[in-house]
Specification:
By secondary structure, the protein is α+β, with helices and mostly antiparallel strands. It contains 14 helices and 19 strands. InterPro entries: HAMP_dom, HATPase_C_sf, Sig_transdc_His_kin_sub2_dim/P.
Length: 599
């Protein structure tokens, strides 16, 4: 049977193996159509997302404006007190100069202001030398060595500071400072200071009734240097509200701003910075970031979600359409083709109901193709069967003819009178029977292209031992033949080689010392590298050579010739009362015999 080239697509290929390793979902038609549609709709999706992002940015700006307004409202009591103190300090700075020459009058004025405005824990005038002699409590104090005084005098201007441990008020206060112009001009003679204790500042604030759904913002007031003046939660908790790694002084110089960042504790908050008095007083309000993105009943992600759902919905529709119209019919047809390719020759009707006309045409073409293949295979099987029957008959008749020739030789050897003639006829008979055994094994083998070595060599051994045995001459045989398949090209010379070598071994085999019968060892075994070896060992007397009795050496010549025909290496040696013959050769591939048989 001739084996032609494998058609493309019928065997595994690197491309098929690569595609098999990929995700099956990514290989489906629905997925690919959806991917193409996704690329086609991508510009629209990008436009939709950009519009949604602009809408969200506008909503965030609006929320920032709301936060600024809420911050001003909740901080208005504190800011009001600080603004009032700034106004009082400015008015006092303009009126205090005539009073500086009269300590009692100056103390009385300061005390009166502190009395009518109880929110001030201290009111006083500090001259440029730091020796305060005019204060609401009438006490004198020397600030000249105080670091805060030195800092104020280094940059004397209207400002607001915090003194966490005032030496006069002995508590944490907000200091509202305003410089006093000297009488003769040319600078400042000192400054007026009003102290607002933090304990007197309002701690609670509320929004309007309609805004109760929003969380009350926390706030900080600070000066232009970023110093925290007051905190809605108290100065002790001001650090929990401060933004991390954000320079407040720079933010204050930039003016109105909103930003999102984390605090030192890791909480994400939304901040709004509002200038109250430009260059002097600022308020920083903040709420948790989740409040910043809470746009009332409308979620921040809603516009993005709608766009994403529309985009995903179009992809799902494309997937379902491809699955219903194409993919399921292609899979059904693919399963039928795969089953037929794997050897299943039962081809049922393909249900292509609802499939497009192009796919139905492919299905009908597949059915016609399977019918043609099944018909051709049936004809081919009939032809192969007829050839096998004919070839078996040829091997059988050759075997019968060889057995007939062997029988004639046997009859002729019985009529021969000389021992030399009988030995010659018996040798020829054994060789002919070896050939007959090979042909018997060939016609009994199902494939007619190979012979099992264990069966072939076992039959030849039994025939030769049976012909050589006689009353009073028995042999002890040990054999081990591996079931190696052989091509006829090697089975014939191997069987003839075994016949000659075994015949010679029987001729010269002698019992070992202390043994009653000669011992023969036969082995046929595989070797690495697709090779095999035949080994024949017999016990023999020292000094005897394995040669024909007539001295012609025909047996050794035939053994060498058959070993050459096998392409093998012949090795013989004799030692310790044992004679060994070994032939190693390379096995022919069975495909070679199949190709020749098919041809």
């Amino acid at each position: 049977m001739t084996v032609g080239p494998v058609p493309m697509g019928t065997g595994p290929s690197p491309g098929g193996q690569l595609s098999g390793s990929r995700s099956r979902v990514a290989q489906r038609l629905g997925f690919r159509l959806a991917a193409l549609l996704a690329v086609a709709l991508l510009p629209l999706a990008i436009i939709s997302f950009l519009q949604a992002d602009a809408w969200v940015a506008a909503a965030r700006d609006q929320r920032a404006a709301v936060l600024m307004g809420d911050t001003l409202r909740v901080s208005s009591p504190v800011i009001g007190l600080i603004r009032e103190a700034q106004g009082a300090a400015a008015a006092l700075a303009r009126t205090v100069r005539p009073l500086l020459d009269d300590e009692r009058t100056c103390d009385a004025v300061m005390s009166h202001l502190a009395g009518v405005s109880p929110q001030y824990s201290f009111v006083g005038y500090v001259p440029s030398d730091g020796r305060m002699i005019c204060a609401s409590d009438g006490a004198a104090y020397d600030y000249s060595g105080n670091p805060l005084f030195q800092e104020i005098m280094a940059d004397l201007r209207a400002q607001i500071l915090v003194n966490s441990r005032s030496p006069v008020a002995r508590t944490s206060v907000v200091l509202v400072i305003h410089p006093v112009i000297a009488r003769l001009g040319g600078g400042y003679s000192g400054y007026v200071v009003l102290a607002l204790p933090h304990s007197a500042l309002p701690a609670d604030a509320t929004l309007a009734r309609g805004d109760a759904r929003r969380e009350l913002p926390s706030f900080l007031t600070m000066n232009r240097d970023g110093m925290v003046l007051t905190s809605s939660g108290g100065l002790d908790h001001a650090a929990d509200l401060l933004p991390q790694d954000v320079p407040l002084a720079e933010r204050a110089r930039d003016g109105l701003a909103s930003f999102v960042t984390r605090t030192a504790a890791g909480q994400e908050r939304f901040y709004a910075l509002v200038p109250v008095v430009e260059g002097q007083l600022y308020v920083l309000g903040s709420v948790p970031a989740r409040e910043a993105v809470g746009l009332g009943p409308v979620s921040l992600v809603t516009p993005f979600l709608v766009s994403a759902l529309m985009w995903a919905g179009s992809l799902i529709v494309a997937w379902i359409a491809a699955e219903r119209l194409v993919s399921r019919h292609i899979r059904r047809l693919g399963r039928a083709i795969g089953a037929f390719a794997s050897g299943n020759r039962v081809v049922g009707g393909l249900d292509m109901e609802g499939a497009p006309a192009e796919i139905r045409d492919v299905g009908q073409a597949f059915l016609r193709m399977t019918e043609t293949i099944l018909r051709d295979e049936a004809e081919l099987e009939d032809t192969v069967h007829q050839r096998e029957v004919l070839l078996r008959e040829v091997h059988h008749r050759v075997k019968n003819n060889l057995q007939l020739i062997a029988s004639i030789m046997n009859m002729q050897s019985r009529r021969a009178r000389s021992p030399e003639t009988k030995a010659l006829m018996r040798g020829l008979q054994e060789r002919v029977m070896s050939l007959a055994t090979v042909h018997k094994e060939l016609y009994q083998t199902s494939g007619l292209t190979d012979v099992r070595a264990d069966e072939l060599l076992g039959d030849i051994t039994r025939q030769i031992i049976g012909m050589a045995s006689a009353p009073g001459r028995a042999f002890h045989i040990d054999h081990d033949f591996a079931p190696i398949p052989l091509t006829p090209d090697q089975a014939v010379p191997l069987s003839l080689l075994l016949t000659e070598a075994l015949t010679n071994a029987i001729k010269y085999a002698e019992p070992a010392p202390g043994a009653s019968s000669p011992r023969l060892e036969l082995r046929f075994a595989p070797l690495p590298g697709n090779r095999a070896e035949l080994v024949i060992v017999n016990t023999a007397s020292e000094g005897e050579a394995a040669a024909e009795p007539e001295g012609t050496g025909l047996g050794q010549q035939l053994v060498g010739a058959f070993a050459s025909q096998l392409g093998g290496e012949l090795e013989t040696r004799q030692a310790d009362g044992r004679y060994l013959l070994r032939v190693a050769f390379e096995l022919n591939p069975l495909a070679r015999a199949e190709n020749r048989h098919g041809a």
